[in-house]
Automatic annotation (TrEMBL):
InterPro entries: Acid_phosphat_B-like, HAD-like_sf, HAD_sf. Keywords: Signal. It comes from Panicum miliaceum (Proso millet). This is Acid phosphatase 1-like isoform X1. Pfam families: Acid_phosphat_B. PANTHER family: ACID PHOSPHATASE-LIKE PROTEIN. Residues 1-28 form the signal peptide. The keyword Signal applies.
Length: 298
């Protein structure tokens, strides 16, 4: 026990000595730092003093003065401009008084020549083919007022069209597209699936009649056309006959419309049958009360 107590006292003594040594070292380091700072302060040169007069002589940084431009009023400016044009030299501009006449401009009047002195009429200096193309476009777009005859400049065009390949090609295209629509249309089978055909220029062609009357250059004459109808010589349009038979086979009921009068019902029915159109369900003439089937019954 005595030996253990001696060891404890020895350790305590060593710890105290170590703490004393650390405190002494810290104190020495602090004194050395203080001495170094004092030496640097003594070695630094003193800045020369500046008196108040030198400070006053230094330029002061001030904001620049704003630039102010005084513009003259509008009235003196106009007066000065007018006086300069007139060559007057005055020191003070004359004050002008604004009046209604100085603010309103005189109207611009243009005298147009009279119609008699205007030269050729509208269209006279336009080439014939251009006038025809202009009329065709307006007619096809339905932008013309109701017209009664084809203009003379389009006579050659109409004849070439209806007697050439273009007219037949257009008819075949319309019939082909109509047949495609008929084949794709769903039929209900309730007896109400119907197809409506016009007679003149759809099923039957009256081209021989129009060839004898200028292809539309002449005004339409109902009496002359009736005499043509009574002959019963209108030919079937081949593409329309093919379409007619196809829609009949698909199960459509066929209704025929015509502007022909009821007095031509017999010759019209015979003409249709002669050209291959049979078994239609109704033929409706211009008289609303007259509706006939292919057998001639109402």
């Amino acid at each position: 026990m005595a030996r253990r107590g001696g060891l404890v006292r020895l350790l305590v003594t060593l710890i105290l000595l170590l703490l004393a040594a650390l405190l002494a070292a810290a104190s020495a380091v602090a004194e050395a730092a203080t001495a170094t700072a004092e030496v640097e302060v003594e070695l630094a040169p003193a800045a020369p003093a500046q008196n108040a007069s030198e400070e006053a002589e230094q330029p002061q940084h001030l904001l620049p003065r704003p630039l102010i431009i005084e513009l003259p009023s509008s009235a003196p400016a106009r007066a000065a401009g007018a006086e300069e044009v007139l060559g007057e030299r005055r020191t003070r501009p004359r004050r002008w008084r604004r009046t209604r006449s100085s603010t309103c401009r005189a109207p611009l009047v243009i005298d147009l020549p009279s119609s008699s002195a205007a030269g050729p009429r509208d269209g006279d200096d336009v080439p014939e083919d251009v006038r025809c193309a202009r009329w065709r476009l307006a007619a096809e777009a339905n932008n013309l007022a109701p017209w009664k005859a084809v203009p003379a400049e389009c006579a050659a065009h109409v004849q070439d069209y209806v007697t050439g390949v273009a007219y037949r090609s257009d008819l075949e295209l319309v019939a082909r597209e109509s047949a495609a629509y008929a084949r794709a249309a769903p039929l209900r089978g309730d007896g109400r699936d119907a197809w409506v055909f016009d007679v003149d220029e759809t099923l039957l062609s009256n081209l021989p009649y129009y060839a004898d009357h200028g292809y539309g250059l002449e005004l339409f004459d109902h009496q002359k056309f009736d005499r043509w109808v009574e002959r019963g010589e209108a030919r079937a349009i081949p593409s329309s006959l093919k379409l007619y038979n196809e829609v009949r086979e698909l199960g459509f009921k066929t209704f025929l419309l015509t502007g022909r009068s009821e007095g031509h019902q017999g010759v019209t029915m015979e003409n249709l049958k002669k050209q291959g159109f049979h078994d239609w369900d109704r033929l409706i003439l211009s008289c609303p009360a007259l509706v006939l089937n292919s057998e001639g019954g109402a």
